[in-house]
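Quick start: read one record
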Amino acid sequence: MKKYFLLAYVLLALGVGRVAAQNPNYSFDRDADFSKYKTYKWVSIESAQHLDELTADQLIGTLGVELAKKGLTRSSSDKADLYIGYQIASDNEKQLNHYDIGAAYGSAAGASTGTAGETTTTVHSGHLLLYIYDSARNQLVWWAVLPNAIDADANPDKKQKHLDKAIVKLLKDYPPQKKS
C-alpha cells in the first residue's frame, strides 16, 4: 500500500512541477505607452499553428479574464487599441509566424480556415506565444512565450486549472513597468 501511495505522490509532484517549472520569456517596445491601451481585438495569425476549437475557446476565455484584470476590455467592433494574436508551437516546431497587420481578422478563437492549396495544422499542446500589437501604429509592442502552457493529456477540469496557472504566469509582466 505504501508503494502505491509513494507512486501517486511522485506522479502528482511531477505534474505540479510541470506548471511550476514554466518560465515565460517576453519582450516589449520600450517607447510604447502601455497606459493608453484600454481595448483589444483578437486577430488570427496566418499560417500559424492553432488549437482545436474547444481548447482555443478555453484559451481565449482564460486570456480574456486575465486581460480584464490588467485593465483591458475586449472590443466588440473592429476598432481597438490593441490587436492580440496567439499561436502554439510544439516541441519540434521550428517556424513561428507573426501577424500580418494587413490581413483580415480571424474568429474569436484565432482559428484560421484553409483555402484552396492551403493546409491548417491543429496542435493540441505545446508552447503558447502571445503577440500584442498597437493597432494605430501597426507595430508589435509586446510578446511572450510560455513552454508547456497547454496540457492536452489532462481531463477538462485539470486542463483548465493548468491553463489558469499558465496564463497568470504568461501575463505576469504585462503591462511592463517603466524604470525611472
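The longest helix spans residues 2-20.
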